[in-house]
Amino acid sequence: MSELTHLDSKGSAHMVNVGDKVETRRVAIASGKISMSPAALTAIRAGDAPKGDVLGTARIAGIMAAKRTGELIPLCHPLGLESVSVEFAFEDAAITATAAASLTGKTGVEMEAMVAVTTALLTIYDMGKAIDKGMVIGDVRLMEKRGGKSGTWKASAE
């Protein structure tokens, strides 16, 4: 099997050939946060935002985006995901989104989990900006990945 790199022998970008890799169960979990005003947080929590069910819409948007990651991120393989979930948790002045993506395949799903989280947070912003245009999205990161040649990886606690 050739070396797995996004650079060919001439140094040009190309899609990695994963044809010879072994299929394994692969799972990735990512998270991110959107900080906002108390008024925006209260409206979203109560389901009273001007644009309707913010978290329900954000959940669907994140799942849909994960399924299209191969179209959004250059050189990313299009994958037949087996499952994607997006969950939300309320904090004092923020909402944390956590996404999990999984499949049995030849390449990982880290990008799919990251795209799901980012899209869910952007959807919250879009649907809540009538209340708070100053919301801040941040802390998007991979929290855990399992499967593949490199095995399990977990983010260090901060």
UniProtKB/TrEMBL annotation:
One of its GO terms (biological process) is Mo-molybdopterin cofactor biosynthetic process. InterPro entries: MoaC, MoaC_bact/euk, MoaC_sf, MoCo_biosynth_MoaA/MoaC, Mopterin_CF_biosynth-C_dom. Substrate binds at L75, C76, H77, M111, E112. The keyword Lyase applies. It comes from the Bacteria. It is an enzyme of class 4 (lyase). Its EC number is 4.6.1.17. It holds the Pfam family MoaC. Keywords: Lyase, Molybdenum cofactor biosynthesis. Gene3D superfamilies: Molybdopterin cofactor biosynthesis C (MoaC) domain. Pathway: Cofactor biosynthesis; molybdopterin biosynthesis. It catalyses: (8S)-3',8-cyclo-7,8-dihydroguanosine 5'-triphosphate = cyclic pyranopterin phosphate + diphosphate. The active site is at D126. Residues 15-148 form the Molybdopterin cofactor biosynthesis C (MoaC) domain. The keyword Lyase applies. Catalyzes the conversion of (8S)-3',8-cyclo-7,8-dihydroguanosine 5'-triphosphate to cyclic pyranopterin monophosphate (cPMP). Belongs to the MoaC family. PANTHER family: MOLYBDOPTERIN COFACTOR SYNTHESIS PROTEIN A. Homohexamer; trimer of dimers. This is Cyclic pyranopterin monophosphate synthase. It comes from Erythrobacter insulae. The gene is moaC.
